[in-house]
Design brief:
The complex is a heterodimer of chains A (about 110) and B (about 120). Chain A has about 110 residues and is mostly beta strands. Chain A contains no helices and eleven strands. In chain A, strand 7 and strand 8 form a beta hairpin. Chain A is globular and about 35 Å long. Chain B has no helices and eleven strands. Classes of the chains: A mainly beta (about 110), B mainly beta (about 120). At the A-B interface, strand 5 and strand 10 of A face strand 4, strand 5, strand 9 and strand 10 of B.
């Protein structure tokens, strides 16, 4: 199975910060990488697909980059509603696998 | 995007089976892949398996192989996930998610509680 490793596991930030989360794959997944946001008690929400494509309706402060084994999710200016857990997922090779999650909380 | 609606919460006894449904109210899954993911209390996301409803092909995570079956009813645009030989560790929220060329969407989740 392809292992997905996110860093950091927890990130403390304030509103307005630029936030970057990294996701590394144990082998190349091309551009078949998605990012999700999950808030307590809610289903995950699609943010980014194919590594850098913004899901319809997602604010433009979210962006994704990378290919192969290293990917990043960037939030350009953190907003109060962005405090959540973020997951990456590869969908290049079955079984599809998730990173362990990155919690973004208040500094 | 393909919006998804899941069936309601279930309480099951150890050793029994549960069948959770995932419907596309818009009437079609298009060519998207429909996957099943579960989340145990306080834990991360765990991928279980997937189906391409258009052609019916399935793929399962090794840890669930032999216990999970994913099927589709194209006429009602519904995908089903059947998990057998339930144990207490299977207590979780089960999600379906659609993944395609233009991103995707998630169902609202179905809580399955396994308790004697």
């Amino acid at each position: 199975d392809i292992q997905m490793t996110q860093s950091p596991s927890t990130l403390s930030a304030v509103v307005g910060d630029r936030v970057t989360i990294t996701c590394r794959a144990s082998q190349s997944v091309g551009s078949w990488l998605a990012w999700y946001q999950q808030k307590p008690g809610q289903a995950p929400k699609f943010l980014i697909y194919q590594a850098s494509r913004l899901q319809s309706g997602v604010p433009s402060r979210f962006s994704g980059s990378g290919s192969g084994t290293e990917f990043t999710l960037t939030i350009s200016r953190l907003q109060p509603e962005d405090f959540a857990i973020y997951y990456c997922q590869q969908y290049d090779t079955y079984p599809w696998t998730f990173g362990q999650g990155t919690r973004v909380d208040f500094k | 995007q393909v919006q998804l609606v899941q069936s309601g919460a279930e309480v099951k006894r150890p050793g029994s089976s549960v069948k959770v449904s995932c419907r596309a109210p818009g009437g079609t899954f298009r060519s998207n892949v429909i996957t099943w993911v579960r989340q145990a209390p306080g834990q991360g996301l765990d991928w279980m398996g997937a189906i391409i409803p258009l052609i019916g092909t399935t793929n399962y995570a090794p840890k669930f192989q032999g216990r999970v079956t994913i099927t589709t009813d194209k006429f009602t645009s519904t995908v089903y996930m059947d998990l057998s030989r339930l144990r207490s560790e299977d207590t979780a929220v089960y999600y379906c998610a659609s993944v395609g060329d233009f991103g995707g969407d998630w169902g609202q989740g179905t809580l399955v509680t396994v308790s004697s």
